[in-house]
Design a protein that fits this description.
1 helix, mainly alpha, 70% helix
Length: 66
């Protein structure tokens, strides 16, 4: 009976440890995604300032100077 109890306690501790490791990895992953989101937002804000050409055959439909 003691062996079964010890096995159950060890399994529970192992699962808690695995959960803590997984939560730490998820936290690092979320921080990385948040950083990338901030970089993309800054990039998109900078790209929004560019204007299309107003005359000629180049750059009037899309911004060809970018």
């Amino acid at each position: 009976m003691d062996a079964a109890v010890n096995n159950m306690v060890n399994a529970t501790l192992d699962m808690r440890h695995a959960q803590a490791v997984q939560e730490a990895q998820f936290s690092v992953f979320k921080e990385a995604l948040d950083g990338q989101a901030a970089q993309i937002t800054a990039l998109m804000d900078g790209a929004a300032e560019a204007q299309l050409a107003t005359s000629g055959s180049v750059g009037t439909q899309i911004n060809a100077t970018a």
